[in-house]
Design brief:
Layout lengths: L1 H5 L31 H23 L3 E5 L13 H8 L9 E6 L9 E5 L5 E8 L6 E8 L4 E7 L15 E5 L5 E7 L8 E8 L9 E11 L5 E6 L7 E3 L19 E7 L5 E2 L17 E4 L3 E4 L7 E4 L2 H22 L11 H10 L19 H9 L1
Parallel strand pairs: 1-2, 2-13, 13-15
Antiparallel strand pairs: 3-11, 4-10, 4-12, 5-9, 5-11, 6-10, 7-8, 8-9, 13-14, 16-17
Amino acid sequence: MASVAAGRATAEFSGGVAPEARIAVVIPDLIVDEGRPHSLGYSNSHLLALKFLRDVAESAELPLVINVSHGMNAGAHDGTSNLEKGFDLISDNGRLPGIAVVKSAGNERDSHGHAELTLATNSCEKLCWESISRQRSKDVIELWFKASSKFRFRLADPNGKKTPWISLQEPSQHGQFATQNTYSITYSRFDQDNGDSRLLITIGNGNAVSICPGIWSLEIVSIDVRTEGTIHAWLERDRTKAIRFTNHLSERTTLSVPGTSNYVLTVGAIETAYPLRLTEFSSLGPTRDGRQKPDISAPGFQVVAARSGSVIGSIAMSGTSMAAPHVSGAVALLFSFLVKQHQSDAHWHQPNMAQVMAAITQSSHNYSGRWHMGFGFGVLDSQELITEILG
């Protein structure tokens, strides 16, 4: 990814988008104490990384483009979490000159990690997911919905054993199934980030060797629906990919956090052949609160880049993680070009994140002013971006 953004050319690699840019790499520490959520480690390590990189750039008196390709599903996907706000604040909500943050959209479109269902008052539904026999310590599922709607919930394991009902009167349940798998379910009506309701389910292996394989289900009964009654559910990602929803599947609203932040350039992945095609894995917008993300798209299918751990080797890889550094490199190229153009002008300032986001979308291939849930506002055009900024 670093080579796509700013790598030098070799015999096997044609070079990155901005090969004269300096590269600083931060490896996040995602390890957290036992019993604490993976998302906490992600949030803490990435917020510390943002601050470190901004300090490095300020010390060098250089503009900064931050490329982030690792995301998560935890949270409401609406820009209100501490992590999303932290990504916005690093650019002072888009106002700080010479700093930009780029995030891959995520590869969640075809992973069956998001479900969406709508209930009427006094109705019921069942949300199901499949667990397979892969070793991991826990599964985490989050449901988000408007607090004006009230529901009750009951979890069932693959053997049909059920937990007590969870409701606003009994908002928390912890226990163990006959399989020795453990469960913890918490219903929070007014979340501190956005005032919406969240149901958090954690299933652990407990004293069993593994989490029970088969179909798990969540019964949902609506008590009072004062809005459209829509519930969004996400499975938290991990390396095992051991669970997936089996009903109420939705490819929309699958962007990984913090690509749901307001002032982060979120990038989808396309194939490079014409007519243009969005890759099957590239996550789709909008955000849960209806904002138009991703912003733009770039090549992310079989992209040739430097092979990690080798001196001269190259490798072809696919993913939105390969699309995002094309955009990061383009913004770095823009910043570098403007530094050279105005290096004798002490009163000149680099464009800020808000200006870069407007320019990069409006200078894209196929720009029409209309947003697409996968392509964003178009496909990256680095040359037109510079032309757009220069006027």
